[in-house]
Each structure stands twice: as C-alpha cells, then as structure tokens.
Fold each of these.
Amino acid sequence: MNVVLGVCGFLSCLIMANILLNKHIKTAEFFNEFYSFHKKINAEISFSQSTIKCLVDELNIDNDFNLAIKKYFDGFFQEPECEYINDTDKALVFNYFNALGVGDKNTQLKAVNAFEYEIKNKKDIYNENVKKYRLTYAKIGILFGIIVFIIFI
Amino acid sequence: MSFDFLPKRIFDALTLCDVDKLCEIRIRTNFPILLVFDNMKAYLSDEGCSVLKTAAIVATKDDILKTIRNVTEFSIYAFNQNIKQGYLTTKEGIRIGLAGDCVFDNDDIITIKNFTSLNIRIPHEVNCCSNYLLSKIIKKDTLFNTLIISPPFYGKTTMLKDLARNINRLEIGSILLVDERGEFNKITGENIDKMAYCNKAYAFQYGIRSLAPKIIITDELGDKKDWNCVNNAVFCGVKVIASCHGCSIEDVVNKEYFYKNIFERYVILNEKKVVESVYDKDFVLI
C-alpha cells in the first residue's frame, strides 16, 4: 500500500513540474506565433494590397495568439485573456494590435516595426526559458518525487 | 443598408432613426453628428434623431479613426489610392468623404492623415427615376451620347445607376460601367461589365479594347484626362453616358476641357433630383 502511495506521490510531483513548465511553453508558443504574425503582416504590407482583416480571417484558431487577434478584430478591442501572460506582455500585444490600421504603407510599416525588436527579444527570452526550465523542473520533479516516495515507504 | 462600420454608440443610435430617408451623415471631430435627410437636418442623439443640439452625440477623433479602420479592415495602406483622392467606399457602396491633413511630396499627394471629418453619403436606389430621361436620349433604338449636369447631391449617380439598369433591360448592347469609386457596386446585369476602382483613362482604354462595349456609363467627368477619354471613346464609335458638376449648360461649356462635339444630349437635374431640362448638341431645349 505504501509503495502504491509512494508511486502516486512521485507521479504527482512529475505532473506538478510539468504544469509549472507548461506556463513557460505556452508563453513561448504565444510569442512565436506573435513574431510569425508580425513577419507575415510586414510582408503583406510591403508586397501586397490585401487587408490585415483578410490575413486575420485566414488564421487557424489553433493557438492562443490567433484567438486573441481574431477576438480583437471581431470588435472586442481587448487585451489577450491568457492567464499565463503577464500584464506587461499583454500591454505589448494590445499596443501592437492598436498600431494596426494607422496609416499609409510607410506609416504602417514604421508603426509595426517599432515593436519588432521587443517582440523578437521576448520570443528569444521565452524560448530560452523553456530550454532552461525544462531541465530544472524535470530535476525538481524527480527529486521531490523521490523524497515523497521515500517518505511514503 | 448596413452601418456596422460605425462605432457602436453611433451605430446603435442610428438604428433608432429612419435610415431609408437618410442622405448624409456628417461626422466632425468635437462637433455634434449631423444627419441630412431629403428635406431636413437633425442631430444624432442616443435616442435617435433630435433637433436639439444639446442632446446630440459629439463625435470624437477616436470615432473617426475607428470608422476608417473598420471600412479599411485595419489596412489604410491598402486603400491609400482612394484616400489620396479624398474618399473611401464601403462594401455596400456607401461613399465616405474624408478631410484631414494632406501629406504632399512636391506636387504629389502621398496620403491624408489625422482625419478630422467624415461625410458619409448614403446611396439610394430609385427605380424607374430615369424613365423620362431615357425617352429623351433614345430614338429608334439609337442612344445619344449624354451628359448629365447638376451640382453635387442632386442625384446624378442615382440617375446613372437607374439608366444602367434600364438600358440593360432594353438589350441595346453591352454596357461598360466605369466605376472609379465603387459606387455602382450593386448594379449588375446580363449586359453589364463593370470596371471598379480604376481611373477612367485605364478603364476606357482597356475596356474598349478587350470588352468591346457599345455603351460606356461613367460618373463625374473632372479633369482634362477624363474629357479626353470620353472624346476618344466617342470617336471609336462607343456611346457614352456621363455626369459632370455644374448648374447649367453655361457652366459646362465654360469648363476648360469641354469638348463641344462629344455629347448629343445635355441633361440638367434640379434640387428635387429630377430632370429639369434636356438640350440637344446645339444647346437647344428639346
């Protein structure tokens, strides 16, 4: 019985570690999508005459960033609702959305490109965080798991 | 007619008004929103139309920007050609006149920014309004080159739209609609080809070559290029029906680029948006 409880405790610790890591993965994915959207927008404005709304309509709702921008363009005009994004990042996304539709080609490009450094920087940081924390959380999960297992048996 | 491109507060207030009779909505930053009906003006309030200025909704800069963003689908850059000419057209063919800071590079306009006013002109379909005119410009299946003359807001475009529908029904031949501003969006027909959002010079040249129209219908002849297009088309054997700003025959004849031998019928519209008089090519009342 104690062994079963110990195994359960060990698995719970691994799951907890995974949940903690998941927040970082989601944030990194969000910013990867954000950066890729920014690049698409840039190309669209530079070389095409189709509208940003068309581009947004074509996005699949298979990730939180696409969901957030679709919601914004559907007239809700709000920050993303993802709980794993901190307030500063939410404000960044919101300001970026607000910068869409501000002027002619040059003005629009300047407006969105003003965000490029920050988006790329955050994307890189969050991707680094995932790499860094993946190992850390795995170690912590296993360590706590072993401790819990030992306590139970 | 859908006004869903307007900010919610203005849209909600408009739903309480009789929009069927609405001709214009004038939105100016920091001023009450004005509604222009056929024969009266009123202000837009949260409860609908109001004659009280104090009850009116005061437009903000944000209202204007939101409207423009919605019409351009957040892509002002994609509509810059139209913006440079001072207007936008919604998908439903509602024309929105723009005022703001014009940006010039030498003599060329680059764009308009910091928009301060909008003039939303609501088009109306008046079926059969051109029946009388049609009887004056067609004789034994022959259509005369016709110029419709009136000041702005006297129904030139409405008349042209109905003429297009009527001529389509008569099956005289292929009609090319040259629609620079997208105002003829809803006009379709088995004999109608439409070239929208392009300038007259391109549409006339390309259209005559490739679509072989018998009749070209176009709105608002303005500068020398426009008059040249019509002149060339007429000498290619194409019949042209066009419109032009002016109050009288004299106004048009005195225009710098007026060509005397193009048009065979001159039609003057009055403020009631009906035909007041029709002149032949020698300016004799008929």
Amino acid sequence: MSVEILSRIQFAFTVAFHYIYPPLSIGLGLVMVLMEGQYLRTGEKVYHQMAHFFTKIFALIFGIGVATGIVMEFEFGTNWATYSRYVGDVFGSALAAEGIFAFALESGFLGVLLFGWNKVGPRVHFFSTIMVFLGSMFSAIWIVVANSWQQTPAGFHVVGEGMNARAEITDFWAMVFNPSAIDRVLHVWIGSFLAGSFLVISISAWYLLKKRHVDLAQRSFKIALSVAAIASLAQLFTGSRSAEIVAEHQPAKLAAMEGHFDSLAVADMYLFGWVDRDAQKVYGLKIPKGLTFLLHKDFSTPVRGLNSFAMTDRPPMVNFVFQMYHIMIAIGMFLIFWSWFLMWLWWRKKLFSYNWVLIVSAWSVLLPQIANQVGWFAAETGRQPWVVYGLLRTSDAFSKTVTANQVLFSLILFTIVYLLLFTLFFYMLNKKIKHGPATEDRDIQHSPLQQNMANLLD
Amino acid sequence: METFIGVDYSTWWFLVLGAVFTGYAILDGFDLGAGALHLFFRKEQSRRIALNAIGPVWDGNEVWLVIGGGALFAGFPKVYASLLSAFYIPIMLFLVMLIFRAVSIEFRSKEDMKWWRATWDISYSVSSIMLAFLLGIVLGNVLLGIPLDIDGNYTGNWLHFINPYAVMVGVTTLALFMMHGAIYLVMKTEDKLYDKLTQLVQRTTIFFVISIIMVSFYTLLYIPHLSESIKSNPWLFPIPILMILAIANITRQVAKKKYLWAFLSSAFTMSMLLTIVALELYPIMLLSSTDPAFSLTVYNASSSQKSLGIMLTVAAIGVPLVAVYTSFVFWTFKGKVKLDETSY
C-alpha cells in the first residue's frame, strides 16, 4: 500500500481511538460539576461519595485521552508534512491556543481534582472540578475550530505556488469564526454531554439492576438523565444547522450524505438505504423531497447533486459517507426518544420500576459513542478528496520523506499498543465499577490553612 | 519586518519556544528522572512514595511538551514538518513510550498481584529512560545538522539518527534528568528512602558531571559550528561560565544537604545549557548537513508576521495564567509525600 493510504489509515485509526475518550471526559466533567454542586448545596454525603467515585472513573478516561491525544499533535508533522507546512500559519495558532489556554488549565487542576480531596477545602475542590471541565470545553473549541477551518476555510490568503503554496492568516477572528465553526463546536460539545451522561446512566442502571448502592445510583441516574434529555433535543437543532452549513459550503459532501446524484433536482431524504454508485441509485426508505424541505423549507428548490462536480472533486466513498451519516441520525433520534421516555417514566414515578428499562439503559452507553464516531467518519470522508476543502488535496498532503515501510511499522505498533490499552481500560473500568463507590465515607479533615484557602476563593 | 522592543517577531517566537522547551526540561525532567530511578527502590512502599511524589504534577509537566509542539507547529511550521518527518521512527517510539509511561503510572497500583506491579514498574522505568534518551537523541541530531534538500525535505535514511554524538547527548540528557529527579525525590521523602536517595543524588551527580564533560570536549574538538558564536562574541563568555558554576553549586549544595538549592541550581544548569544551544544555533533552527544554504532558519521557516503577532499576544496572556495555576498546584502538594486513599 502507498504511503498516503497507510498514513490515512493510521491517522483515522489513532484519531478514532483517541475520540473514545475526550467526549467522555467533557460529558462526565459536566455531570461531576453538577454532582459536586449538589453536595455543596445540600451537604448530603451521598453526593460526595458520588462525585468521588465518578472522579476515579474520570481519571482513568482522562489519562488515556491525554496519552492518545499527544500522538495526534505530533502525527501532523510526522505523516502529513506537506499539510503541516500548508496550514501551519493558520492551524498552528489554534493548536497553540489550545495548549496554552485549555490543556494547561485542565491538566493543572486535574491534580487537585484527583489528589486534593483531603488537601483543599470542598469549595476549592469544586472550583478545580469546574476548571477541569472548562479546560476540556475550551480544548474542544480550539480543536474543532481547526478542523472546521479545514472544512470551511476563512480569514486567510494563499501565498506561493505548487508544493510551496501555503495558507497565511489575514484575519484571526474570521479564521476562528469560520462558517462552520460555531455549529460544529456546539455539535461536538453536545455529543460529548450525551457520551458522558449516558455513561453515568449506564453505570447507575447496572447498580440498580444488581441492587447495589441503590440510593446513590438513583440520584446519579436522575442527574445524568436531566443532562441527557436536554442534550439529546439540543443535538437535533445543532445537527440540522450543521447540515444546512454543509449544504451551503460543502455541497459535494451533502450530496454524498444523501446519495443525491442528479446535478440539479429536488432531493429526497432517506431514513435508511444503500447507495449503488455505479447505477447512481439509492435503494431504501425515503421521504420524498425531504432534503429540499430540510434545507429550503419548501418542496421545489433543487439541490446540487454529485454529478455537478468533476469526477476528481467528488467524495470517493459515497455509500460509506451515506451509511455513517444515517447511522448517526438514527442513533440521535433514538436517544431523543429514549431519554424523553425515561423522563416520562420519572414523571410517572416509575423510572426504576421496570427491569427491561434498566437493561436498555445499561447498554445505552454505546450509542452516543457510536454516533460520535460515525459522525466524524461522515464529516471527514465526506470532505475527501480534500484535506483542506477546495484548497489542498489529501493525495498531496502526506510526508514525502517517509517510506511505506516506516508507516506500516508504526501502524502495526499503534495497533498492538492500542489493543492492549483498550483491554486494560476496559478491565480497569469494569473493576472500578464493580468495586463501586466507598460506602463508608471517611471524614474529611481540613487544616486551618486549607480552610483559609477555601475562604479566600469563596 | 515587525518588531517589538527592537527584536523581530520571528526571534521573539524563537525565544518563546526556547522558554517553553526549557520549562519542559525543568519540569518533566524531574519526573522522567524519577521514573528512570524507579527500579533502584526495592520496597513496595518506597516505590509507591516515589511514584506519588510526582503523582499530582507529572501530567501538568507533560503539558509543556504539548505547548511546545503546538508552538513549533504554529511559529515554524516548516521546521515542525521537516523535523518530525525526518525523525519518523524515533518520534513514533517516543509517542509509544509516552503512552506506556502514562499507563504504567495510572495502572501499577490498581492491582495487588506482584507480577502486575513488577511489570508496570519495569515499563514505567524503561519508558522514562527511553523518553529522556530519545529527547537527547533528537537534540543531538539537531545540533549536528541533518541532510535536508532545498525544499527542506529530509534525504537521509531511517537509521541516520543513531550516531555517536547523538548517543552521547542522549546519555547526557538521561544523566541530567536522573540527577534532577533524584534531587526532587529527596525533597519529597523521609527516613530510609531519604537516606537511599541522598546516595543516589551523589551517584547521579557524578554520572552527569562525567557525561557533560565528555560531551563538551567532543563538541569543542569536533563540531566547530557549535562554539562559533561564543568564540566570536566575548560578551557571551559568562554564559558557559555560569553553567559551570551552577554545576559546581549542585555538588556543593548536595554536600550541604540543601536540596532545594541543589534543585534550583540543576534547573539553572538546564536553562544555561539550552541558552547555549539556542545561541549557537540561531538563526538556524534545523541545519542542513547537505548544504548550509538549505537550512531552515527563524526567518525562512517562520509563519507570517501577522500570525506571529497573534501568537505572541496569546502567549503574553496565556503564559502568566499557566504560571499562576501551576504554582497553585505545586503549593497544594508541597511537602513530604503521605500516602492516602487517593494515591496511586
């Protein structure tokens, strides 16, 4: 296989693996802030136990997220040298801002969050939890801004020609607020809230099924469900807004998402289907003129199809993009249904009355994870053949000095290491969940000095 | 070209980058060093104390590498691209070692089985040693220069990075970090472990002094371009002298058991060492051994003036913030290590 293909596989593999963790950190961070806030508000020990327990799970997730994240930062240079030279001026400032504003914040306060329970007062600890959560949110902003710039470049001009061409920044804020940035940041945030809240729902449901830590699990279930219910609905709006932006700025990607070939025709929306690229047909269940309605709120405006693009400018994997996009939407819809069904049960005071509801809830953790993954696959494969949309082709972007054997070596290395890592992660997560929260909460002692510090930050 | 207090933006960013990597060496240096020494501690309790001495801070220390990587990408994208693609294999090993190290720290104390802990202890120590060594290897090659063509593309083969000079710099980096880590640990421990560490401080200091003398002589004798600026600018002469005095002061403070001063001297040694590196390289960042004219410099490899200006603003706002909460975290965990239920 060529260096380009191997590098693409390696990047896709390492980033997909990495992306299991950051959304969980962000979402769990939010739920932990709520838990610790409840503790400070009510003073009930159960919330302290809860926060303490989920902090341990958070530590595990965060640790692997950091380790696999550093890989990403350096992989741009090792495998995508031409790309790095091209985008460095623009993309680099976003990455640098991420490191200094976001990552330093979360990693710094993480020490206090994990090891500071007995060293600082509860308010300082709560403050640290909020800082870690905010750090992870900021982190998402900068990374998604950088990626959005690749989708909808803005605030730059191109200097030089051929292989020496590079984008230079002309307007920092136009770059940051490029057309797709805001909606995609929101979409990623909310996807992360879903990932985190469904993790808590799942763990709580499992305890309830096993009749362990019942009081704690019921409360954590409700806290997480409140987040999930709001987030799942909000995701519908950021999602449809994102689709409109894709239609406006990356019409070829949108056409691939719905398997829409006709150059200029009213477009259908599929609930599910299968794209036959050669026959230019989609077999499946469709809402006639649905896509046109989604984008233009009428039934007559035509939508640009794949055939209106040169063969070399179309996403090569149309069916793949179509499937990824539709799996994401199907899961999103199910999560709305499920979380509001749970809300209804809660309202009827029957939230914990049915075993099957708890069983489905326990498994539901997988759904936001899958949706986050396939959503990114749709976004990134739909952007092909471009690495920077309309400007730089993926086939030009890889490192020219690296050989296929070197990439094959590192790909095998990462595969082995990540399989090991995932096994360990799963084993440890399982162990921590089985071990459960500390039932007899130790008395937390605060030295006078630490009390002073707590008062200082009040 | 845009300037600020008479210095152009490219040079300012070079200085920022130097400061970040110096910060990284001082901070991650002690926890990598502590990891490299890990297997010298025999008892389970000692190993846990040593691990928890760096427990709350190692992650924050590693952030400096993330910032450094971002700063290099942002300010000098051509250097970032050429350097990382040239050192493909060592960088990949470096990344894998970072993963192993993080995992070892996180997982070692989570199970009681002896084999489990022994395995992660070895993995933790070996990865720490390898990381320090690989950092030195890359630094050594950067100092020597690497074969680059006119477009800044690397033309050497994949084994080029292993050469005697780079290995010497690698060993010296390891020795420096081991000494630095031993001094840090001695400040965080008590009783028998403290006694053991006072010995280790002495031995690692000797190890470092020998290796730095060797590497300095080799550099002065065989690599003339690495002493040119100081030779031709006598007013720079105090810098290497200060470094030598700082090294001498480490041994003096160690003998007096004033470990905080020894630690500060060791940190100062690192900054002087990297200052010399920066002075000798500037304005070149990546020397081409094929033809010096192909070298990447702070001027031909930098981002646009506009971009540098934005990033200097970001750094001016961000760095003081980072300094404030890094100090807060270190202050929270000051003093000797006491194990509790939140420990590793």
Amino acid sequence: MTALEEVFRSAWPVVVASTARLTRDLDLAEDCTQEAVERALRRWPAGFPDNPAGWLTTTAHRIALDRLRREATLRRKLPLLVDPVSGAGGPAVEGSAIGEDADPEPTDPLRLVFTCCHPALSRESRVALTLRLVCGVDVATIAAVLLAGEAAVARRITRAKRKIAVARVPFRVPAGDELAERLDAVLTVVHLVYTAGHVGSGTGLRDTDLTGRALGLARMLVALLPGEPEPRALLGLLSLTEARGDARTGADGELVLLPDQDRSGWDRRLIREGLGLATSALRAGPHGRFALQAGVAGLHAVAPSWAQTDWARVVVTYDALLRVWPSPVVALNRAVARGRLPGADPAAVLAEVDALAPELAGYPYLPAARADLLARLGRAAEAAAAYDGALAVTRNPVERRHLTRRRAETGAS
Amino acid sequence: MARYVFLMYDSEDWHDTVDEQGVADEFALHEEFMAAVTAAGASVVGGEALERSSTASTVRRGPDAGTRPLVTDGPFADTKEALGGFYVIDAPDLDVALSLAAACPAGNVEVRPVMEMPDGT
C-alpha cells in the first residue's frame, strides 16, 4: 500500500461519518468524500498538506455545503437522515442546524458503523454497506468478495442507503442493554469481512487487502469502545488467525491445514498481541462469543504441535461457546475436538457429526470432517465419497486441490 | 418525528373461538400498547381493527381505462396470517418504532414508513 492509499484508507470513515452528521444524508456524504479524494489525487502530487485527513474532511464538508445550498429548495422536500428538532441522533446534533457542528467527533465513525450494521438491514446489505461506507471499498471489489454481480451489489447498497434515509435509521451509537446486541451485529460483519478475505474468492487462498480491512475495523472498534471486551476479543481472534497466514500455504501454494502447519512460520508478534487481547477479554466477565472463539484460537497458538494441543481445554471452551452461541458450526468443531481427546471413539464422533448434517447442508467442512473420521476408521470408500461431497461445495481452488489430495490418500478409486 | 404504519398480521383462528372475555382482554392489551407508545415519546395518530379477511372484496383494475374492473371475493393476498388491523404512529426514529412494534399485541408487525409529501405535512 502506498502512503497515499494509507492516508485515504484511514481518513475515509472519519470523513464520511463527519460529513454524514453535517448533511444528515449518507448518500451525499459518500459522494462528497469520493469527490474530496479525487481532488486530493489531482492536487497532492504537487505536495502533501500538513494534515491530510483534516484537508479531506474540510474539502468534503465544503463540497457538501455547496451542493446543499444549490439544492436547498429540493432538499427541504427530502427526508432527513437525522431529525434536527427531536435530537434523536444524540446530543451532538441536538438543536443544531445543517452546516453547524462541522468538526469531526471521535465517535463519528462508530455511529457510521452502527448505522451500516443496523438490524433492520439484511446481513448482506450490512456487509456491503460497511465495506462501501466505512472502508471505502469500490463496488466492483465488494461484488467480487460477495460472489455477486456488480450491478446487483450497487442496487443493494442504493436500496440500503435509501431505507436508512426514508425509514429514519438513527445515526447513533446505541446505549445500555441495547449496545451488547447491536455490537454483536457489528462484530459479526467485521468477522464476515475477515473470513471472506481469509478464504479468498480469487485464485489464491487469501486476500490480504480484505483481511487488513477487517483488522483495521476491529482496531477502530477497540479504540472507540475501550470498555467493551468483545471488540478486544474479536481483534484477538483475528490476530491469532492472521498469525498463521503464511503457514497456511506450502512452498508450492498448496493449502496446509492446522495439523500439518509449520508452526515456526507463525507470526509470534501477532500471537503475543492476540493472546493478550483474548486473555483480557476472557478476564473481563461473562464470556462472550468472540472471547471464547479467541480462547480456542489461543489454545492452538500456544500448542507446540497438533498432537500436543490441550484438547480437553479446547472441548471445555467449545462447550461454553455452544451455550452462549448455539450454532451447528460450533457443534461440529466441538465434535472434531472431542475426536482428538485421548481414548476418543471415532465411530461415536462420526455419529455426532452425522447428526449435524441436516442443519449443515452445503457446508463444506462437514463432509471433510466426516471423510477424516471415516479414513481413521479404515472405511476408505466411504471416506472418498465424503471428500467428493466436500469438493462439490468448495469453490476456492487451493482448498479444492487440498481435498483432491486427501481423497487420493484414502487409496479408494 | 417520522410517521410509520404498523400492519398487524395474525392467524384468524382467533375469530372462531373468541368469547366476550377474550375480546375484552384483547382491548386491554391494545390500551396498554397505546400507553406504551405515549410513554416512549411517540404518538398514535390513527388505527383500526379490521373484520376478518373473508369479508374482503378485491377490485382489480384492468391494464387500460376501457377494461371493466374485476371484483373478486377475498383479500388481495390470501395468506395464512392475514392483515387484521393497523396503527399510524409518529415516532422519533426507526429504533423507537421497532421497539414499539415489539410491544404491539400482534404476531407479526410490518413497520412501513409513510411517504412524506412535498408540502411538508
């Protein structure tokens, strides 16, 4: 990433969010931020301003105010993002008229994230809107991430912005009891962005630009919500996963799964950072979903090898996770971990995995886990058939090559 | 303030079995709901309970002015859970509207923003 790209990337959410508070219109805020970036691209080659983020903010605000003045008559007829009279947008907008309150506030990007991840929007819309408005990712790239058409993604974003304006989704950070639930929706979006980058849709396994965006979002949430353990837990989980990044592919570009990874290739600095965050989140009180997931990732990170992993603690952590977040994917992971306990009965674990099949139709890791257990039980033909099932629902070419190799190792035709 | 319509959808089996006490209980629930709306800084601007969907008639206008409208017996969309009533509510924002919809005595509540008219009403 060039220095210029780095400036744009870190300034983008601040500029969009403060412009949105100024104009009370997300669409306009996005347009003006885009135009400010384009002006910067034309002018900055002659020399960087002293405060590039401040320059972008001021420029976006000026563009916005110009447009609002020009369209003043029309504007009065359009619904506003935040009702200036009711003060529903929080104390920062209370009683202020459009054009006042222009200085960016530290919590602006946070309001923007909570608005983009509002529960009244579909999960797909939340992801697309967060990538566009908070991260400044262009529509073509978002379409590639979501495995969708560019026109469809553009329509989805337009519809979501329109709903926010017309249905008056408030531009604020929820407080009290509401915060925990709303925060979970935000963290889920960040996690989805990371996962999309971790198992890329392209030819390679990873899209480091996207995983970097997710890490950046998680860092921003940690900085803006220092009292909340779950953003720290998410950042810990992402750091611990990211630490394994380069070890996930072998010299020939093949996928290397956790059991076979060269652990000396893991990034020790990221592991230390991730363990610190995970530990602090787990100590903070009732364990949230991301704290427990970070706990599992931490147990893998400190294990000298796959065989020497503290499987008993992994299983206990999955038990706790299943209580706070009952999901068939967690149940599958717990079953796989139980299969690693000393004296485990692969046949019993297989029965447990099979029981989850109806809920996890189309989830490629279930047939892959079945195949592994069947191979351990010496049922080669069935293992090969299960690998075929996994291949049928796996798109990533690196993952596909890995499954094909494992299938060949069963010795079945 | 923004204006929303709450469209209440429910199973209509209730109509077959309800007695006087049941109707009184239902009214009490709606009184409670309206009190909750006021307490939340919002207001009920209007609303009606509707007779069951089998009493509805649907008029379908033809594609052009010359065609005679077609009248059918029954609601426009014949669904298991039918539109049984509506409220018109003024609320500060969607978060307030959604929390009120959760307190509304109906199985399913569709919350729709009302289109703002150009004269600012």
Amino acid sequence: MSKGKILQAIRTNKPSSTPLPEVPMYESGKDLLKTFTQSARASNSRVIPWHNINDLDQWIKDEYSDCRCIASTWSDYAGNVSLDDIQAPKDLHTVDLAIVCSPLGVAENGAIWITDHLVRPRILPFITQHLVVVLDHANIVENMHMAYESLHLRDVGFGVFIAGPSKTADIEQSLVVGAQGARTHTVLVKS
Amino acid sequence: MSDANKTTIDHAARAASFIADTERTDWHNKAISFLRTKRDGGIAPIEEWEDLRQLASQIKNNVLSNLDGYLMQFEEMALANGTKVHWAETAEDHNRIVGDILANHSVRSLVKSKSMLTEECHLNQYLESKGIEVIDTDLGERIIQMRDEAPSHIVAPAIHIRKEEVGELFHEKLQTEAGASDPKYLTEAARQHLRTKFLAADAALTGVNFAIAETGGVVVCTNEGNADMGVHIHPVQIHSMGIEKIVPQTKHLGIFTRLLSRSATGQPITIYTSHYQKPKPEGEMHIIIVDNGRSTHLGKEKFRNALKCIRCGACMNSCPVYRRSGGYSYGSTVPGPIGSILTPGFDLKKFKNLPFASSLCGACSDVCPVKINIHEQLYEWRQIVYQEGALNKSKSIPLKIVGKVLAKPRLYDGLGKIMRSALGWMPRFLTHNRLNAWTNGRELPDPPKESFKDWYAKNKKDV
C-alpha cells in the first residue's frame, strides 16, 4: 500500500526525463604500483613488496610477534584458527591477525577489494586486530571507474573496498588509527 | 535544545547564544574550516574534478526523472537477491517496520551505524520506548548519544565538542581516568566499550549512501568500520534508505565514491566502502525504502534538485554562517545550507527563518559535488516565505517602506537629503534600538555630504 502511494506520488511529481551520461574511464597511464603504494601509505597502510619477504612464516613471527590467534583465508598460509569450525561470527573476536587475498587494488586511493567469495565469514577483516592482504601487482587498476568495471558486483553477496586501518577523527579532528575495525593494514604485493 | 518544540526555529537567536562565547566560536570556525581546507587539498590532484561533478549532477537528474522505475528495478533485484524490501511513507511507518522486524527476532539490543535518516525519523526514541537498547556505534554519534544530543554536523556529528568534554563524559560513562583528554586514549576506551556492545547486540541497522538499481544492493561508507562490525556479526541486518539514494548502475559508483569522501574530508576514499548485496548465510537482510516527504519535495520544480544531495557536508564546511553559528542553530536534522533549502519544503512555518541564515555568497554551490544551486534556492525560498506572509515583521515592515520609497524618486531624493543631515545630529537611540535589528552589532558609516546623483550631476560636465 505504501509502495503504491509512494510510486504514484513520484510519477505525479517527477520532472521530465533526462538522459544518462556516458562515463569515461579517465585513464592517464600512471605508474600503477607506485601510485598505489603512495596512496595506501597516505591512509596509514603498509605496502610491502613480496620479494622483500624471504620466508613468510618467519616474517609473520617477526612482524606480529604478539599475535597468537591467526586466521587465514589464503591457501598459501594456514594460520591456527579453523574458520570452518566457527559456530557464530562473533567467535572470531579473539583473532589477532587475519590474512586474506584480494583480487583487485586501486591505485588512486590504495584500496583493495575483498568479497565473500574469498573471505568467509564476512566479519573476519573487520573484527581482527591486524589485517594482511595479499595482492597481485597485475590486479592493480588506476581508478574507481576501472575498478567497478572489473569487479562483477552482481556475483557477490558482500564486497568491500578497504583503504587502510580503521580510523576516526571524531574527537577534535585528531586522527586516531584503530577505531572499531583493524588497527593495522598491510598489503603484500606479489609481482 | 530548549525551543525544539516551538513552532518556529529562531536561527538568529540561537546563533546569538552560540557566538556569545567568542573563543569557542573562533575554535568552531577553525575546526570546520579545516575540513574545507582538506577538501580543497583532496580535489587538487583530480584533473577531471569538474567533469565528475557535471556527470554526478546529470546522473542524479536522470535518477529523479525516472525514480519510480529505478525503485521498482531496485526492489525486483533486491528480492531476487533474497533481501526483504519494505516501503515506508512516513517516519512513523519506518519506525514501526523496524520495530516489527526486531520484535519478530526478539531483539533486545540493536547496534546502529551512522544514519541521518534514522535521526530524521527519531528511531532511537521510538525503539527505546519499546524497551530496546540502541547503541550508536560511530564514535562521534556515540559521544552525542551519551550526551543526549543530536548531531551538529552530518559528517562529523560531535565536531562542536571539545576533547576535555569528551574526557569528562567518558570518565563518567566509561570510567576513563579523570582529567584524561588524549584523543588516542579516549578512542581506545570507546573501542573497548563498543566491542562489547557489538558482541552483545542481536541485530544491526545502517543508513545507506547509495542504492544500486541494477543490482539491488546498497553501499555504506565509513572510516571506523562500525557498519561492518555490526552487520556481519548478527543474523539480522537492516538498511534504511531515502528514496533519493538510488544510483542506476554499478559503474556510476565510480563517480560518486570519488566525489563523496574528497568533498567531505579530502580523503580519496573512505576506509571502508561496503557493498551489501545479499544476506549472509542463514541471515536476514532487510531494506526499508523511506519517503517521508521526499516525493512531495520532488514536485517543487525550483527546489527538487536538492534531492540530489549525497550528504558530504561540503556546503556547511564552506558556509560562513554555519561555521560561526554551529549546527544546532538550524534546529533541523540536516543543518547548514543544504538543510536550509530542504527543510522549508517539509515544514515552511517551522523552518521559514533558515533561508535567511545565509549571506548568499554562493560558496555552498561552488563546492557541491552534485552541483545543487544551493544559494539560488535560498534566495527562491526567501521569496516564498515573503509571499506566504511568513516573513518576520522586523523584515517585512521595513521592506514595505523601502519598497514604497524606492518607487518614488522624489520621495527618495528628499528623504536621502534629510537623512544625510539627520544622521549627523540624531540621538543614537533612534537608530540603535531594540526594534531595529539592522544595526545590531553594526555601526553606520559617516553619512556622505551629497548623494551620488548630486555628485554625478556636478562631475559629468567635466568628463
């Protein structure tokens, strides 16, 4: 009933139709990895080239020595949390470090795309204290126009661009990193 | 707010009480100006910025002109995704729908992420009256919720509060150390507090930045991650959206995500841009499509394009009046220039003063990412306020007198001559008094010896 009334009111009141414009891609041919790295660092992310890591196990032990509970959805790293056995998403509140894979990075803002195809439960990259994202250099696009062109939103249940660690400036506009989501955000770029 | 229930919002009186504290006014002005400065820095590297604004404006025009069709397409796609779709004509309908969903799931505690729509509908008060705990989870929103206040800014809801005041509040509510005011320390305390609330709640509700007709999904932008912390923990997720939040296709998000956060805070993108397409496994996803006066506003030809607004806040950050009078002086859910052109359409009597809370400098229109002609609409609203006979007598009577004088050149010349002399010897109380708001806080310039007309008549012979 509400639906019919609302739609009828819109039909009566709407202006005459105007066309949708074409949306260009605005490709400028920037160095994608360099731009991605600069943008990501500007929003407090770490970007680490894969070739700087000799031994992933050792690197995680060194970098995340305080993290006891590690969950990974990346096939090349096991972690010590069995995500298949989780009863409820909230059970993941003890996760210190999550390692996930991203199929898409955006140079202009340093964001990476994560979907529930690769990351389940959906809460994992938010509830974890620290997040490590594995991204292939070849999957970086220049800007958001290109990103949306390639991410096939219709096929996902949930997808998110994450551009850095959770942050807030709600108290006197002082930037504080580590609001409600992950405290740190690190992108490992494979080439 | 003491006069929240009075029929007319007296912006000038509210602003006067705000600026009585000069030091705080300066601080507020600087805090808001800082956001505008960050916006300018954020858009500087984008060569196609003006193109993007133009495209966004055209896309939103197209949306408004086909809104019924897009909403039907959106519903069809959302239903196919397994989402439940509800339609709410009014704020009361919206609140009742939320209440029914929560009752069906025996929800006792709801976590909410920032939503100006639920502020507009006064959802918190409604649910609390039903015994449901509502926790606002954006840090700024949580602060003002604890203070029992409304947001004073649509992007930075607690921007009017100083860190020492947050320190006192958290000391009382969250047992932080007395006297502590370090934002990092206070934010950490809020993080710990909110994590317990996220885990204990039974359902989550968010606002909506964009609703995609093509896919039936909704997009929510946050920096803190609070929307996702709520939505993914609980089986029941609810998203409340105004009918105007539609974008036609996924590819249009490329434009709006580039514009929104840069216009708001200068960031190239918010930290989290979340696309909720389908319910989680064994979960329920509800979308409530709310009208609450928007379809009526759509029929107002001169004012309809205010519905293009994407709620970035750039207009208020650029407004010399907002910066120095604070969000509460507007007495509306959405304050600042955009609030001043939206609210008179919903309640002219209550908000008739807001179109006058502007110098008509046009800074708001210059920065608007969807090119709403805000300052022109402010001017148009003033005329409607006048035509409806709703103008205050302190404005309407002098304007009527001035109108008569200006219509008669001889009378104008004669009065000008008298006043040029009289202003020199007249007692001050005749010009500076309670009845004449025009000289409040202003001094008259020294009267000139002759009128321009006399001067021109004399000097044109020499040219």
